[in-house]
Amino acid sequence: MMGNRDIQKLLPHRYPFLLIDRIIEIDPGKKGVGLKNLTGNEWFFQGHSSYPPNLLLESLAQVGGVVLASKAREENPQATVQGLFAGVSEFTFQRCPVRGEQVRLKAEVLQSLSSIYKFSAEAFVGDEKIAGGQILLSFTRLSV
Amino acid sequence: MDRKKLEDTFHRLSHPFPALLIDRILETEPGKRIRTVKGVTANEFFLPGHFPGEPIMPGVMTLEGMIQSALLLLDELHSRGKITASLEKVGRLKFKKPVVPGDRVEFQVQLISQDNPLHKFKGKALVGEGTAAEADFTIKASIREVGFEL
Predict the structure, then answer these.
(1) Which regions in chain B score pLDDT beneath 50?
(2) Residue-wise pLDDT tens digits, A86-109
(3) Distance CA A135, CA A120 (A)
(4) Which of A96, B11, B43, B142 is buried most, with the most CB atoms less than 10 Å from its CB?
(5) Contact across the interface for A87 and B95, Cβ inside 8 Å
């Protein structure tokens, strides 16, 4: 389990674009489960009550980033890494989560080819699956 | 189209995104394709967090620009009634190169097929001659023809 401070040590993302709050399960390099609370005063809720779908993709990608970065840090605590969102495939949205809900974000590495990692990514609210598909991250270690 | 009108359009489509990511419509072929443009500046509200000291336009914002362009096409297609548009599926999305402050992003979106309520689009985000992102996505638009036109 990781709190927000630990996440900030692994990801360069900050307000207003850090879109995960906590990691509740992590298997470095393989899979992770993150949490994001949706609360009324966040910037994307101006005039709306649902979490924009593109940001849901970003939240899932950030969980993927934590999975990969935690593995790199485990191997070398000084490692500097760069992760970028590389793509999405066959991702469907059943519905968008709304204000007041807590989203559980699951990301699991399916395969990797040089610096590209393919994840299975799913989002849940309680037991209800609200979106899922595959996302691709490009991840490189800048220093050895 | 001025900014107010663009904002009203997204409001009518009940699109859940607070920021307009389109500055101008360059060209529309109603029901078929649209070209829009956004100038990316260092002052974008989301850049301080993505990333501190190294501003890169988040890929999902580029996707949002393509979605908003597609919604403008939808708006023209169904000019009457109430529409609820939502993103149903991203079939394929590729980010090819990062977009940074100073870039002018041109979104080119075309409607590929329409099987109500599903509308399939193909989109591209171009910076100069290069392609920054490409996407195939589906938007579900439920239309309720209500009221009268006066």
Answers:
(1) none
(2) 999 999 999 999 999 999 999 999
(3) 7
(4) A96
(5) yes
